[in-house]
Amino acid sequence: MNAARPVEQALWWLAAIPATMVIFVGFGLPLVQSVVASFTRDGVLTLANYELVYRLYRQDVVYTVQVAAAGLALTFGIGIPLSGYLRLHHSQTAEFLLKVPLFVPFVVVGHAMRIFLAPRGTLLVGLHALGLASPDTTLAISEGALGLSMALAWKHLALVVLLLMGAFRGVSEEYLEAARGFGAGTFRQIWAVLVPMAAPSIGLAVVLSLTSMLASFSIPLMMTKGSGPQMLMIDLYYRYGQHGDIGVASAIGVVSYLLAAGAAYYYLKGIAR
Amino acid sequence: MRRLVAVLVVLVAVAASGPTGYGQSRVTLQVAIAADVNVVEVHRNYLGVAFNKNNPAVTVNAVGTGTGEAASRAIYTKLKAQADTGRRNWDVDVALVSMRYASQMAKENLLHRFVSEMQFAPYVVGPDTVRAFGVDIKGYVVPMFRNQIAIAYNPQFVSKPPRSFAELEAWVRANPRRFGYNGIKGGVSGIGFVMGWVYYKTGRYDLFAQGPFDKANDGLIRGAIEQLREFNRNVFVTSGNAGTLDALNRGEIWMGAVWVDQLVAWKNEGRMNPEITPVLIAPGLPIYPIYLTVTREAANRDWAGKYVDFVANPQIQAKVIVEQFGWYPGIDPNRVMPLVSAAAKALLFKGVTPEDLARYSQQMPIGDYYDAILLAYEEIVR
Questions:
Q1: Which spans in B211-317 are helix H?
Q2: For B266-297, how does the pLDDT look when each residue is reduced to its tens digit (9 = 90+)?
Q3: A239 close to B (CB below 8 A)
Q4: Inter-chain contact A237–B70, Cβ cutoff 8 Å?
Q5: What is the ipTM metric for this complex?
Q6: pTM of the prediction?
């Protein structure tokens, strides 16, 4: 039995090599390369790329965090009560409808929201038809952070509902019955029982949604106007695509890694102990 | 439908009139296209098919690499990698790339100088076939077509369109947020408008377009861009060329800087208010060609040159490039325009006449000034 152990271990290592290599070649190596590129200009080690990021894009870093935070607030502000309600009052149709955005590509969401929220877009036409807006009114939601956060929230709500429903279903019915026995209503059951007991899953959903929102590209590309603050991925694409400036593009990438890594660190340390 | 049939008939006729056969072995000509899907389709469904009819041994494989400068960059990166590793027989024969990357590829010796070997070489004319972004490109490129940036306006709201940047400035002041363009991150039409603005404000077109670069002129550029920041306060900055056309269509803006080809194409497809008319303002706006090039180590270099020659045929230019797609000819217009139908001419030159093009079409600045202007814009206007 003991003699077989080293062989077994060697086989385990062997089995793990392909997957580890994929992670190393597909993610680790490009990560190292982009970190190195971010500190290099014309073959010389320098901080010039970060200096340019600070000069041109520091407001965009703040803007990106703001949009992602607003998107998260919207997603979870709607997602938690909705998932909680559906856990307590089952509705298969509502659950299915909530998951529909999972199957809509990001770029389609961006285009649809752009048309829907445009200054004279579908939303305004609808409001006008209902007599709630005058023909001269124009909306400016699609251009700014609000429209972007709304689009990101719509797209991410499906994943969040999927994760939360799983977690809420994992909470034993006995706890809920006990809460109801003490007179807890729907809101109280969600807030005092479901949310604390599903906290690790909510934390995971927050981190996944946040990193996805920080990295969002096609929705901002479709929706934002060409002036004012931009999401970081738009800046990264512009630096690389328009100027071929790998150094600054990599520096923007590293800043994005740090933002996402900060959220992941908080999750690992704080919630998933 | 009748026009489509006519185009196909011309394509087959032109193909049949050319030289036949070029060895018997089968060849797949790899054509990489850094442009919109409509350009990929022209090569795949029209030009490639017709070229194959005449040369049955050659199959044209047209592949799109996306849109914008990033698409050209993808081709450049691929060729550069093959050059750096010392590979022979590169896997791209013909590359259709933007002016910016064609000049970079010529500078870095990634292209084959083939134009002199072409039958239609004498028709490859214009300053943009000689220098681009300060680089000598003569003999390396044949413009497939040229595309002009112009100011499109809605006559329902604009009775007297501006004829100059100064008139545009006054109009925008009087009509806040009724003029739109797409900044510098939404595509080259916005970038071109910014370049036109700098030419207008500094009055130094020759310096920027021909060089030499001198960092001391940064103050000149920044002065012009600071005035653009003020101008932009009354401007609706859209998300892209399509965004500008959309806003014009919905009546959100009454005037906007757009590519003429997309305006004409959208009108042809019935997606655009037919009343929207382009006008070219003084002292001018950039014209931007898209270049056919043959790569230095193309596996099928001779066929690649012949394919470009085929696209430069005045008949093809007239029937496909101008009539079918509403682009300005890539080769000498004097050879092409007599072959174009009156209806197509009327559509193409509605608003922007050949005389306007001759007077007000400008080149993009040389590379260093181009970068300096964009950097100033990012820093000052945002």
A1: 218-232, 241-250, 260-268, 301-311, 314-316
A2: 888 888 999 999 999 999 999 888 999 999 99
A3: no
A4: yes
A5: 0.74
A6: 0.80
